């Protein structure tokens, strides 16, 4: 009776809806053991209260579960990931395969087409500047001075292009795991810890706002 008293309605915020959804699954006993390990062995009642609150919000008849919400409302592909008996390497590899099933994510990095377009635009700007400088130099200097200036500018231009191409290649060679571990996992871990501390009514919305504020 106590669990059936409150009804929940989930609403989709498309501007913050994630492209990938991974729902970890663990037996209640495993969750309780880890909770008491981190909060103290005298926190069993506190864990049961929070677990009942979670069940009420997610597994009550007529209420979308977290997985159902993203599948039915957000129309997203959801990965349900059991964690019992798996180490971090197994969990990471399963998540990586799920996220890369349609290609490696760029995580707000420019695409190859955007990088190529940027390089071409810089080349065009350099060419324009060189032509203008060459025209002005031709009026003031002899052909020998103009040739020396052109050679110098050509070397500078090639150095700039080489630098951009090298930076682009480094981005392409960076493994997804290394990128995630360096830029995503620390912030995501802190955000999840904060969610566990606060226990908000809408953990997904709270986590999204936390990551945006601490980006």
Task: Tell me about this structure.
There is one protein chain. With 215 residues, this protein is mainly alpha-helical. The chain folds into two domains: 102 residues, no CATH class; 62 residues. The protein is built from eight helices and two strands. The longest helix is centred in the C-terminal third of the chain and has 31 residues. The protein starts with 20 loop residues before the first strand and ends with a helix. It holds the Pfam family Dpy-30.
Largest sheet: 2 strands, parallel
Give me the Rg, rounded: 27 Å
Strand fraction: under 5%
- Give the integer mean of the pLDDT values: 80
The proportion of residues forming helix, as a percent range, comes to 55-70%
Strand order of the largest sheet: 1-2
Shape: elongated
The termini sit apart by: 42 Å
Number of helices: 8
The count of domains is 2
Low-confidence stretches: none
Which secondary-structure class do the elements indicate? mainly alpha
Using DSSP, what is the number of strands?
2
Q: Give me the strand/helix succession.
A: EHHHEHHHHH
Pfam families: Dpy-30 (PF05186)
């Amino acid at each position: 009776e106590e669990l059936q008293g409150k009804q929940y309605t989930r609403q989709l915020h498309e501007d913050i809806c994630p492209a990938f959804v991974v729902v970890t699954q663990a037996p209640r006993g495993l969750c309780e053991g880890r909770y008491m390990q981190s909060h103290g062995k005298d926190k069993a009642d506190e864990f049961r209260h929070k677990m009942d609150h979670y069940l009420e919000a997610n597994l009550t008849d007529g209420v979308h579960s977290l997985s159902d919400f993203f599948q039915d409302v957000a129309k997203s592909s959801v990965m349900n990931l059991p964690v019992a008996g798996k180490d971090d390497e197994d969990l990471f590899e399963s998540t990586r395969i799920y996220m890369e099933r349609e290609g490696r994510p760029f995580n707000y990095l420019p695409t190859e087409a955007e990088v190529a377009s940027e390089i071409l635009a810089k080349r065009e700007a350099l060419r324009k500047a060189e032509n203008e400088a060459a025209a002005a130099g031709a009026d003031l200097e002899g052909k020998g001075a103009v040739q020396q200036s052109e050679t110098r500018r050509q070397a500078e231009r090639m150095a700039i292009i080489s630098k951009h191409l090298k930076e682009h290649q480094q981005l392409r060679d960076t493994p997804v795991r290394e990128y995630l571990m360096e830029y995503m996992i620390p912030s995501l871990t802190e955000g999840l810890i904060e969610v566990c501390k606060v226990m908000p009514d809408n953990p997904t919305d709270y986590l999204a706002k936390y990551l945006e504020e601490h980006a």
